[in-house]
Amino acid sequence: MIEDYLKEEVGLTPKDAMEEASRCLLCLDAPCSQDCPAGTDPAKFIRSLRFKNVIGACETVRENNILAGICARVCPTEKYCEKACSRCGIDKPIHIAKLQRFITDYEACTKMNILSKMEPNGKKIAIIGSGPAGLACAGYLAKMGFFVTVYEKYSKAGGYLRVGIPEYRLPNKVVDEEIKKISDLGVNFIFNTAIDSNKLEELKKENDAVIIATGFPKGKTLDIFNDNKKVKIAVDFLKEVKEKKGKIKLPESAVVIGGGDVAMDASLTLKKLGVKTVTDFAYEEFEYFKASKDELLKAREAGVTILDGYIPVKATKSGVCTFTHRIIDSKVQIKTPLIILAIGQTYDLDNLGLSIEDFNSSDYRIKNTNLFFAGDLAPLDKNVVYAVRSAKEVTNRIIDFLKEGK
To answer: Is the pTM of this model over 0.85?
Structure first.
């Protein structure tokens, strides 16, 4: 069953990609491009692909989205560009994500080198964290001629991309390819280095600007699960599975609590690793589910039982968990050897000596300092495509900040 976890879904063939691109209506004022948070410009790259200009399509995708290969696999396009597609009123939207994956796979196979950088401008930027926001910031700033150093507490770059998203959705080889493109721009990575408040003060003095891109690394929990050995936090579980390439011991049944993409990742990972009975309890009813429809569908097709509208109210150390429905008069009690909590994540700024109240959401700046932030710490959707958007915006903000000198 480990093979199922490690095996990525097959992408489009050239014939399939061209046929899908030919469905595009070539809208003059393309709504799909207007609804891409990262400004990837699907209309332009689909038009290029449709007229067999694959190299032009690659250039459009990569220049506009520095993490294009990753976004092609994990972006919830149904909520953004595909939702806006004009074909929705006719039959079904263009499979924009699949076309973007075809293009970035072609780019990787042909070893295209699209990204280039401007002459060095003499300015230094330090970035704390090498998740999607940190990587995107590093790439965009390096292209603009900045000398960029990324500090990462682990031994490899990638953050949640590397340790949190299951291998079948995002293979680490793809993460490595995307990071190499950024490294080739001259970005310097320093690994196994955790930044504390003292080191942060040094970085502020040594650099023209410092970006905090540490994400939301801590999984949330509930008091009823405190000190319960049968409970695992979803982000920790997914990290363990990916680091061990699926070679972990699991029981025959498990319960997942949560209704977002992380909950679906945990549920489907359990099934792919051979857990026979996986039951997911979600706070939201299906109509308001936070998980992407695609991930929800895959979980259900794999045999995950999903009970929507339920909240946990009691848990025992023996694995008995009681749920009540939020609206109807219903109670469910289930005994399980493993409970995985996927009820959200939060920031961890204690080591840096920072308070979230100091973050100015209007301009990505922390107080009146040369500290900036990006990614999950910004008041945007918590996903990779919005991490790319925040990276573009904070790059522009830093350029303005250095020009203004304040």
So the answer is: yes
